[in-house]
Amino acid sequence: MQRKPLFVIGLLMLAALVLAGCPAPAAPAPTGEAAAPGAVTVQAMLASNPREFDNAAVAYCAEQTGINIEVINGPESATDRLALYLQFFGAQSGDIDIIQMDVIWPGILAEHLADLNPYLEQEGVDIGMYFDRIVQNNTVDGALTGLPWFTDAGILYYRSDLLEKYGFDGPPETWAELDEMATAIQEGERAEGNPDFWGFVWQGNSYEGLTCDALEWQVSWGGGEIVEPDGTISINNPQAAAAFDMAASWVGRISPPGVVSYQEEDARGVWQAGNAAFMRNWPYAYALGNAEDSVIRDAFGVVPLPKGEGPDARNADTLGGWQMAVSRYSSNVDAAAKVAICMAGMEGQKIRATQGSMLPTIGALYEDEDVLAANPFFSQMYDVFAGGAVARPSTVTGELYNEVSTIYFTEVNRTLTGQQTGQQAVENIEAQLQDLLR
Ligand code: GLC
Fold it and tell me: I need a labelling partner for 373 at 20 to 30 A (CA). Which of 49, 86, 97, 363 fits?
């Protein structure tokens, strides 16, 4: 089978990335050497910055299926990635066969994706092995738009060595405790000669990641879920406003002023250099923090994010995660579906879980010895990972979710940068959502 013209992809990506102000992506890396010459090739748009475990899983599936898998690196930001996918799909481009789809996108992308149900049957895969909540999430009008590939939940990383050094018994249970510990540790570390040390790093940039962080703050204060599952727009409430004011008060005090433009990797950069006491991030940072050359190896732990204040205060961790989806415009839907099934299959997920702490979507893998040995926190936080995380309102708002999220993260970011109060933010978000969802 002939390879498809890559220049079309290149042009579209370049255009999209230049628009988004991102550096151009690396050239596609053919990773299917194991497959026979002349075998079918599928193109998959995956991680922006593939790590060893990404390549290992792709190589495994190329070998298993006999299909060449050409990996194209997608944008890092979920917001930019969605814009790029919509450009491809808008042109009904057959240049990308497989995409990784965020857990919030089935309602937006369903019309462009192949239903994977028949392929699962053909390959004899039991859909029952996957977390049901994610299968439901990915099912739109009876069609399975994507296979659960890995799940995600926002978690709190803490420096166990520094908590001990400053006399704290354990990680914070409330944001007020986090603030107190972060302040003390930051002062102490700076006084000892590290001017770059900060108390708490997180994701404050105006993009999808901020929707995840801000939803955690507001739910932890009992401030509702923006738009409730029954469609009620609940954002305008004092608890949500107080949660945003709390986060704004961190900026420049216990969090770097630049946190208002941080994405995941910016936060991890500070944390991984040993320059933060706490970090909010996804589980992927666990394996990287414990890598052999890491300065924080064995010096940190993870727990659910802290609670806010008020009668409905609780721990809240946003549900994230990615699916393997196949483009309806692919000329190789069959081959692409086989690859997607392998990537999201037991072994494909095990490689990524053991080497990269990517959370499996298959319950049985949380009992696998190798997976648990690499990630002791998987069992400790199983309840969060298997169903307890808070979903963004993507099912109820469907194809409009991206607009909802954009309104939300834009207004929250304006609060973080001191342009408005939490109360003004919740009022502005409410007014815009009423217009949009009316
Ligand atoms: C992670 C999550 C994803 C979320 C994104 C935001 O990749 O898995 O669901 O949308 O972060 O930055």
Answer: 49
Strand partners, 42: 69
368: Cβ below 6 Å to ligand 1? no
Index of the ligand 1 atom closest to the CA of residue 77: 12
Q: Are residues 330 and 407 in the same domain?
A: no
Pair (277, 417) in one structural domain: yes
Please give the distance, rounded to the nearest whole angstrom, from the Cα atom of residue 282 to the centre of ligand 1. 8
Residue span of the structural domain in which 227 resides: 155-313+393-437
Contact between 45 and 72 under an 8 Å Cβ cutoff? The reply is: yes
Report whether residue 202 contacts ligand 1, using a CB cutoff of 6 Å: no
pLDDT digits (tens, 9 = 90+) for 393-434: 999 999 999 999 999 999 999 999 999 999 999 999 999 999
**Collapsed DSSP state (helix, strand, coil) of residue 200:** strand
Q: Element (H or E) spanning 53, and its range? A: helix 52-65
Return the beta strands (E) in 23-168 as ranges: 29-30, 41-46, 68-73, 98-102, 139-140, 143-144, 147-153, 155-159
Is the minimum distance from the CB of 213 to ligand 1 under 6 angstroms?
A: no
pLDDT at 14 over 80: no
- Our answer on whether the CB atom of 78 is closer than 6 Å to any ligand 1 atom is yes
Number of Cβ atoms within 10 Å of the Cβ of 138:
23
Q: Is the Cβ atom of 154 under 6 angstroms away from ligand 1?
A: no
Q: How far is the CA of 78 from the centre of ligand 1 (A)?
A: 6
208 C-alpha vs ligand 1 centroid, how far in Å?
Answer: 7
Euclidean distance between CA atoms 403 and 389, whole angstroms:
22
In sequence order, what are the beta bridge partners of 233?
227
| pLDDT, tens digit, 9 for 90 and up, residues 341-360 | 999 999 999 999 999 999 99
Residues 308 and 245: beta-carbon distance below 8 Å = no
- Closest of 216, 214, 195 to residue 416, by C-alpha: 214
Domains in the chain, number = 2
Q: Tell me, yes or no, whether 387 lies in a domain.
A: no
**Average of per-residue pLDDT values in the chain:** 93
Our answer on whether the CB atom of 320 is closer than 6 Å to any ligand 1 atom is yes
Model confidence at 115: pLDDT above 50: yes
